[in-house]
Amino acid sequence: MSKVIYCLYCTTILVKYQTKFCSSSCAAKVNNKLYPKRIAPLRSSCSYCGELVKHHRNKYCSIKCFGLSQCKHYTEKELRAKNVMAVQAYRQRKYSQTPPNADKKLIFEIYNNCPKGYEVDHIIPISKGGLHHQDNLQYLTAQENRKKSNKLDYF
Asked: Which of 155, 136, 139, 137 is nearest to 147 (CA)?
């Protein structure tokens, strides 16, 4: 005598012996109860500081927390000191590139008299061996200066 098999959801007798459900809708109803759709929380907390984030998909509340989480072995004070050291190293390279015959007062005036929307640019960049000299300085718009970057043959 053959064994009678029932649907796991609605307990109707099954004709096919390989299946567990009478229809795909019964299978979906059982599976949806076992594995409900993931509902995202309305707001979550920052992985670094614990404050609420603006959007539930974000992991950090701000760029600052993201940056600090990437450098967890540094404290905020140590990161600030590291940035100051980088700026000082840049200034040191700049001043070591200033020749003795450069007119420092004139260079200071060039920087002070820079028109609004313009920046002082080194024609031959310091990173490419240019000198911090009044003859190597020019005014460029901020956008042009960003495009030029440290290129020699921009124009």
From this structure: 155
Burial class (CB in 10 A: 0-12, 13-18, 19+), 122: buried
Residues 142 and 89 in one domain: yes
**Counted domains in the chain:** 2
Shared-domain flag, residues 83 and 33:
no
pTM: 0.42
Q: Which residue range forms the structural domain that includes residue 16?
A: 1-39
What number of helices (H) and strands (E) belong to the chain? 5, 2
Residue 49 falls inside a structural domain:
no
- Give domain status of residue 115, yes or no: yes
CA 52, 67, 84, 112 torsion: positive or negative?
A: negative
pLDDT, tens digit, 9 for 90 and up, residues 26-61:
888 887 776 666 655 566 788 888 888 887 778 888
The tokens describing 10, both together, are 């609605």
Asked if 79 and 141 sit in the same domain, the reply is yes
Write down the pLDDT at residue 141: 93
Mean pLDDT of the chain: 81
Beta-bridge partners for 37: none
Residue 61 lies in a domain: no
Taken as a whole, the chain contains a residue count of 155
